[in-house]
Amino acid sequence: MSLSPSKKMKDFLKEVFFRLLPKFSLSKDRASVLMYHSISDRQDFFSAVSPEVFNKQMAYLAAKKREVISLAELIRRLRAHEPLGGSIALAFDDGSRDNYTTVFPLLKQYNFPATIFVTTGLIGNPEYCSPEELREMHDSGLIAVEPHTLSHPKLAALPRADADHEIRESRRVLQDMLGVTPTLFAYPYGNFSEETVSLVREMGFAGAVAVQEGTVNPATDLFRLPRNSIDRSTTFEQFRGKVSRAIDRYVSLKALFHL
């Protein structure tokens, strides 16, 4: 898939920004949540990250002795007003089968916890995790399996009753499958409205993740947690920036230059 001139220019400027911005470590009151999708060599899926690149990124976190914590632990610290410790949390959206075949073994190797947000209507499809695979990851204690709706719609565009059904039923599917009540939610496409947030709160979720970039801090809304996307276009320099305060500087610059 060829990139448009405007896309190429944005990618060029992004790389320039991240190369120039100092990679200050996250302070004790900050954390960075990384958002992945497929970890594979798929060329038809822009959000895919190759296994080799993903392993290099995890090796970097391990070598730098970065604390990798679960999203649940991050939210616990926020609620308890405890230091976030400059920590990193890993999240994977959709439930691609490579999350089981490729990601799970690597995370066990590094002993890094992660959260997989599953589009439950896709469970068991050829390219997605099966119930048995999701249960195995859940039972390991390393992977939290959480809902990402039934069919991956843009929730803000749905009538309230339909959005309620998408969220509630995806949670029920996982509860029946895993024997525990899911506590976290991911908005498909990062698309939500005030009504969507209200629904998620009213259902008793502990928090929800969006797709806006930046770091998490003590003032962050638990139902609008920012995540830093890692995809095929993410260079290693950009990855390093997204696990440092450089990502906040980049977000500010992007707004300034209307990128």
Can you tag this structure with a few keywords?
259 residues; alpha/beta; TIM Barrel; six-stranded parallel sheet; two-stranded parallel ribbon; 9 helices; 8 strands; 41% helix; disordered N terminus
Query: What ranges have pLDDT less than 50 throughout 5 or more consecutive residues?
Result: 1-5
What's the name of the CATH homologous superfamily?
Glycoside hydrolase/deacetylase
Overall, the morphology is: globular
Helix content: 40-55%
Characterization of the model:
The protein is built from nine helices and eight strands. The protein has a single domain, classed as TIM Barrel (Alpha-Beta Barrel). Helix 2 runs parallel beside helix 4 and helix 6 runs parallel beside helix 7. The strands form two sheets. Strands 1, 2, 3, 4, 5 and 8 form a six-stranded parallel sheet that branches. A two-stranded parallel sheet has the order 6-7. By secondary structure, it is an alpha/beta fold. The two termini are 21 Å apart. The N terminus is likely disordered. The longest helix has 19 residues. It is 41% helix and 13% strand.
Summarize the structure.
With 259 residues, the protein is an alpha/beta fold. The chain has helices at residues 5-20, 51-63, 71-80, 98-110, 131-139, 160-178, 194-202, 236-242, 246-256; strands at residues 31-36, 68-69, 87-94, 114-118, 143-147, 184-186, 207-209, 228-229.
